[in-house]
Amino acid sequence: AKLQGRGQCKFYSPEINAQLQERLALENELHGALDRGEMVVFYQPLIDLDSGKLTALEALVRWQHPTRGLVSPAKFIPIAEANGMIINLGEWVLQTACAQNRAWQLAGFPPIRISVNLSARQFEQPDLVQVVERILQETELEPSYLELEVTESFLMNDIDNSVKILKELRNIGLWVALDDFGTGYSSLNYLKRFPLDMLKIDRSFVNDVTSNSDSAAVTDAIIALAKSLRLNITAEGVETKEQLDYLQNRGCNEGQGFYFCRPVPADTISNMLEKDARL
Ligand code: C2E
Ligand code: CA
Ligand code: CA
Ligand code: CA
Fold first, then answer.
1. Protein residues with CB under 6 Å of any ligand 1 atom
2. Cα dist. 87→82, 90, 175, 272 in Å?
3. Which ligand is nearest to the CA of 201?
């Protein structure tokens, strides 16, 4: 950056410029993407580490772009967060995931939880609880088969209000999980105030739990903390047998990661459930 008159800063780095252009292009194309039917929900299994059974699925949105191919949510969710599109998109994901879960139940598969990510912007909507209730009614999904994932960073914005909303959500009868645990403020003082059902250990710790003693120590501490608060504990990003063994030994309840299964389209899950049912 080069200093201009009156202390203003002008960026001319070609790299930054290219990134900005890319972001602007994506933002433009994102408008109407939902209406054009370009969004798809993938599902990733959560495995019970005692029984080895699939107990839940996390809904993860993808953008099936006409020329760019499958665009990762890491690329477009931040844009949708910034311009408010996440509110409609998030509601659509919730609706799609609940309807899909109900469809699997009606097809006769053993009932499982479906877990949906909530964004900060959705959490700030005064009608969030009503929206969730309406979608559960419309899709005829029992609330106990829905889990919502929230993150510490946005719960901490307004703690009293967050506690109130979490209480209302849990009163519906659904489950609330704290996602990416260990990466946020980790104010243990507040953690006990939040009405939660599960903690998800961030994959940055799980990734090198068998190679880095700091990550192992953090993981152990999180598991111990979850147990003392009587929270269910899920490890994200399980990629190897060694990681799985470690987590199993420490009494972690559920695992999610490429070792078990990548996020896949609903059809692929249907085939897996069908095979399971025939066993
Ligand atoms: P997240 O909620 O932490 O979701 C888990 C991410 O970890 C997913 O990335 C998943 O594909 C990835 N993952 C799972 N297992 C492994 C593993 O073993 N190794 C590695 N390296 N990665 C693994 P994905 O699908 O790209 O999503 C990225 C993020 O985008 C999510 O992180 C979530 O914050 C956001 N996101 C995705 N879908 C939605 C949505 O519908 N609404 C909102 N608000 N955010 C979403
Ligand atoms: Ca998540
Ligand atoms: Ca996560
Ligand atoms: Ca994450």
1. 44, 60-61, 72-74, 77, 86, 90, 93, 117, 119, 179-180, 203, 236-239, 256-258, 263
2. 11, 5, 20, 31
3. 3
Segment 155-170, tens digit of pLDDT: 988 999 999 999 999 9
Looking at the DSSP bridge assignments, the partners of residue 45 are 57
Which of 130, 119, 44, 49 minimizes the C-alpha distance to 88? Answer: 119
C-alpha 145/C-alpha 22 separation (Å) is: 39
Q: Could you give the ipTM of this predicted complex?
A: 0.97
Summarised one tens digit per residue, pLDDT across range 188-210 is: 778 889 999 999 999 999 999 99
Please check whether residue 143 is in contact with residue 174, taking contact to mean a CB–CB distance below 8 angstroms.
yes
